[in-house]
């Protein structure tokens, strides 16, 4: 079990549930260091005071807010902890709503809430079953990293998950981003709908981070002094070409149908591309009848010449017979 990031309680009406916050996700990304190219020395970020140029340790660094130029108000962690907020050490549930009413754009990070001792087992289970039976999610307020946050409590299997949410005024309006004055044919819309239905799936658990896998192979090869792996052929994409929209939709639907195969497995973008390019991979190995040896070509020419002379002789004989008869 990873180390808890925060300890407090869920405030549910008059019910208090001690909980511990644990990250619900893991970072599997590959992180790089910065190096000096000439000697491969490590380049580090150092925290230096602007006034005396002295490098500082974390214990010597505090928080402050600049109210004016050259005027900073220091704020300590103790002062932040003592702020008169009911959410300072509690996740205070303020309402319950349908999950579909929450805009996915507002969801940020996710954390599991584990019980903070056996005393919390019963009220924790009570809240979980209330959320499941009502088919609702809870909207709550809580203090986190020096500010009050909005969150959503949702059930995942046997645990309660806290999704950190953006406040409404933090979401930018997409009004100016939508293209204007675009005309679509009804057939194009129907074909696009058919494509969504063909590619529909109830399970996306099988997706993998192919970029990270390729990056791991690259690092392994270079660390062993080997050549970098060849790029996958299906990763090559034609760019700069404008395709007919309807033709692209038709081709996409057919590719999606083909990628499912007889076993009915769900299609992915990767399998669709590899299926479409599969014939190109097999072409060099095929033996086409157009490629003949020099001897074969010579024999074919002689045979054609014989047939031509025979036809000419027959045609001449037939013409002479017609003149004799006349």
Rough outline: extended
Largest sheet: 7 strands, mixed, barrel
Structural class: alpha+beta
User: In order across it, which strands form the biggest sheet?
Assistant: 1-2-8-11-10-9-7
Return the string of H and E elements: EEEEEEHEEHEEEHHHHH
- Report the oligomer: single chain
The rounded distance between the terminal residues' Cα atoms is: 112 Å
Radius of gyration, CA atoms, in whole angstroms: 36 Å
**Segments where pLDDT lies below 50 for 5+ residues?**
262-326
Strand content: 15-25%
Number of strands: 11
Helix proportion range: 25-40%
Count of DSSP H/I helices:
7
Average pLDDT metric: 77
Structure notes:
By secondary structure, this protein is α+β, with helices and mostly antiparallel strands. 33% of the residues lie in helices and 23% in strands. The chain contains 7 helices and 11 strands. It has helices spanning 77-81, 121-134, 186-198, 210-223, 245-260, 269-282, 294-325; strands at 6-12, 15-23, 34-35, 42-43, 63-68, 71-75, 90-98, 107-115, 136-144, 147-156, 159-165. The strands form 3 sheets. A 7-stranded mixed barrel has the order 1-2-8-11-10-9-7. The protein has a two-stranded antiparallel sheet with strand order 3-4. Strand 5 and strand 6 (71-75) form a beta hairpin. Helix 3 (186-198) runs parallel beside helix 5 and helix 5 (245-260) crosses helix 6. The longest helix is centred in the C-terminal third of the chain and has 32 residues, at 294-325. The chain is extended and about 65 Å long.
């Amino acid at each position: 079990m990873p180390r808890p990031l925060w300890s407090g309680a869920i405030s549910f009406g008059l019910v208090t549930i001690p909980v511990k916050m644990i990250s619900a996700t893991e970072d599997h990304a590959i992180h790089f260091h910065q190096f000096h190219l000439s000697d491969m020395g490590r380049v580090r970020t150092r925290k230096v005071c602007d006034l005396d140029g002295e490098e500082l340790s974390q214990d010597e660094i505090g928080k402050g807010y600049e109210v004016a130029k050259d005027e900073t108000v220091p704020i300590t962690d103790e002062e932040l902890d003592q702020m008169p907020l009911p959410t300072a050490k509690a996740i205070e549930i303020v309402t319950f709503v349908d999950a579909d009413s929450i805009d996915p754009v507002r969801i940020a990070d996710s954390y599991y809430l584990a019980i903070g001792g056996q005393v919390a087992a019963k009220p924790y289970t009570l809240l979980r079953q209330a959320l499941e039976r009502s088919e609702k999610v809870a909207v709550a307020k809580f203090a986190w990293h020096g500010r009050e946050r909005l969150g959503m409590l949702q059930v995942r299997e046997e645990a309660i998950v806290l999704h950190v949410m953006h406040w409404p005024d933090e979401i930018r309006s997409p009004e100016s981003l939508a293209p204007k004055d675009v005309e679509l044919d009804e057939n194009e819309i129907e074909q696009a709908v058919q494509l969504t239905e063909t590619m529909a799936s109830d399970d996306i658990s099988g997706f993998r981070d192919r970029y990270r896998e390729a990056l791991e192979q690259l690092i392994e090869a270079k660390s062993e002094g080997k050549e970098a792996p060849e790029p996958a052929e299906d990763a090559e994409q034609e760019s700069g070409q404008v395709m007919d929209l309807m033709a692209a939709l038709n081709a996409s639907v057919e590719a999606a149908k083909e990628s499912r195969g007889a076993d009915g497995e769900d299609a992915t973008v990767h399998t669709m591309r590899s299926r479409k390019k599969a014939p190109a991979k097999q072409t060099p190995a095929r033996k086409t009848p157009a490629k003949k040896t020099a001897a074969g070509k010579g024999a074919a020419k002689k045979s054609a010449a014989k047939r031509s002379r025979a036809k000419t002789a027959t045609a001449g004989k037939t013409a002479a017979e017609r003149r004799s008869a006349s």
